[in-house]
Amino acid sequence: MELPGGDMEAELIEAVRPAPPHPPGARVVPGGISFVVRSTGATAVSLVLYRMGEAEPFAELPLPPECRTGGVWAVTVPGLDHRDLEYGYRVWGPSGPGDRYDPRRVVADPYARAIGGGGERWGGPRQPFEGFRYRGRVVADEFDWEGDRPLNLPARDLVVYEAHVRGFTRHPSSGVAAPGTYAGFAEKVGYLRELGVNCVELLPVFEFDELANDRFDQVAGQALWNYWGYSTVGFFAPKAGYSSGPDAAAELKSLVKALHRAGIEVVLDVVFNHTAEGNDNGPAISLRGLDNQVFYLLDEEGRYRDYSGTGNTLNANHPLVVEFVLECLRFWVIEYHVDGFRFDLASALTRDGDGTPLADPPLLRAIAADPLLRDTKLIAEAWDAAGLYQVGSFPAYGRFAEWNGRYRDAVRRFVKGDPGTAGEAALRLAGSPDLYDGRGPLASVNFVTAHDGFTLADLFSYNEKHNERNGEHNGDGEHVNHSWNCGHEGPTSDPEVLALRRRLTRNALALLLLGRGVPMLVAGDEFGRTQQGNNNAYCHDDELSWVDWEAATRNWDLVAFTRSLIAFRREHPALRHDAYDGVRHEAEGLLLTVEFRAPGDVVLVIANSHWEPTEVALPPGTRWRLFLDTTTREVHRDPVPVDQDRITAGPRSVLVLTTAPRGGAEG
Question: Is 476 designated active site?
Answer without folding.
Answer: no
